């Protein structure tokens, strides 16, 4: 309950901040986008992890206003970077959407308004949702995902491979990118079963014309295996941990 009060106040007092983690092309090593990840600087408790407060925000419904703030702030930042770095016109911003947000009936209108306000083309926005969010809301998901797609917004399946779901949604719903959960990457260089699972996901994505991002790329050995499998993109501590906007701009400059 205290956390709920604090979350509400935190939103008013602008205690939230976005960090950004680069998503890198494994072919060219270039940064092709960022995943926005929320951080909370609590006045007494210091930095509170989203793993701790996102579940509370979900339960209390506060994830809705927090989520709108995340979308607006991430789009505002992307727009600023495109002006600052004209060579990065195709930079894409990925944003996590939780179940509560995904089932907001005004999601499409609100996103349309945010894109207009921040002057971000729909093609530059990617929404990350987990398999379970789609499967638990299959009916809403169908309408919503097709509406988002018709705007030109891209959709990523986050933590792919960890949910209880049917592969049928891959052809029933318009999805552009599979993000392979980091639990499949962490031993890819020493565990042949992990290697085979990742190989299969990369092939599945290619056969369906989808992009693929390996999450949790931490070592050069991980990278070498992923390149051998022709995995398109990667994200992880090897490239950069999530960083604040100033540090992210430095990464773009390099
Ligand atoms: O950044 P970190 O690894 O600490 O994030 C922990 C969890 O919080 C991850 O599962 C991530 O998806 C989630 N998360 C981070 N930022 C956001 C956000 O803006 N919205 C939602 N819904 N989840 C987020
Ligand atoms: O659930 P989601 O994939 O949205 O969450 C991303 C989370 O993964 C963030 O909390 C981020 O800090 C974390 N993360 C990003 N890169 C790595 C990595 O290379 N290794 C590990 N262990 N965690 C990572
Ligand atoms: Mn994510
Ligand atoms: Na993930």
From TrEMBL:
Residues 1-254 form the EAL domain. Transmembrane segments: none annotated. This is Diguanylate cyclase. It comes from Chroococcidiopsis cubana SAG 39.79. The chain holds residues 296 to 549 of 559 of the full protein.
């Amino acid at each position: 309950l205290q956390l709920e009060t604090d979350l509400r106040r935190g939103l008013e007092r602008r205690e939230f901040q976005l960090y950004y983690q680069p998503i890198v092309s494994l072919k060219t090593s270039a940064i092709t986008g960022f995943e926005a990840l929320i951080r909370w600087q609590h006045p007494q408790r210091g930095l509170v992890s989203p793993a701790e407060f996102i579940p509370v925000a979900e339960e209390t419904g506060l994830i809705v206003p927090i989520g709108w703030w995340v979308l607006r702030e991430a789009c505002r930042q992307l727009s600023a970077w495109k002006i600052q770095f004209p060579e990065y016109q195709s930079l894409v911003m990925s944003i996590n959407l939780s179940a509560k947000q995904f089932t907001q009936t005004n999601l499409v209108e609100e996103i349309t308004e945010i894109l207009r306000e921040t002057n971000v083309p729909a093609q530059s926005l990617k929404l990350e949702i987990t398999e379970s969010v789609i499967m638990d809301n299959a009916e809403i998901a169908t309408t919503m995902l097709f509406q988002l797609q018709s705007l030109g917004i891209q959709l990523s399946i986050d933590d792919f491979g960890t949910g209880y779901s049917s592969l049928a949604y891959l052809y029933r719903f318009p999805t552009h990118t599979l993000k392979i959960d980091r639990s499949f990457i962490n031993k890819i260089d020493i565990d042949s079963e992990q290697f085979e699972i990742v190989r299969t996901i990369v092939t599945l994505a290619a056969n369906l014309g989808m992009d693929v991002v390996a999450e949790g790329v931490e070592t050069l050995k991980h990278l070498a295996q992923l390149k051998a499998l022709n995995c398109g993109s990667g994200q992880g501590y090897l490239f950069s941990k999530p960083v604040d906007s100033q540090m992210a701009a430095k990464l773009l400059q390099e």
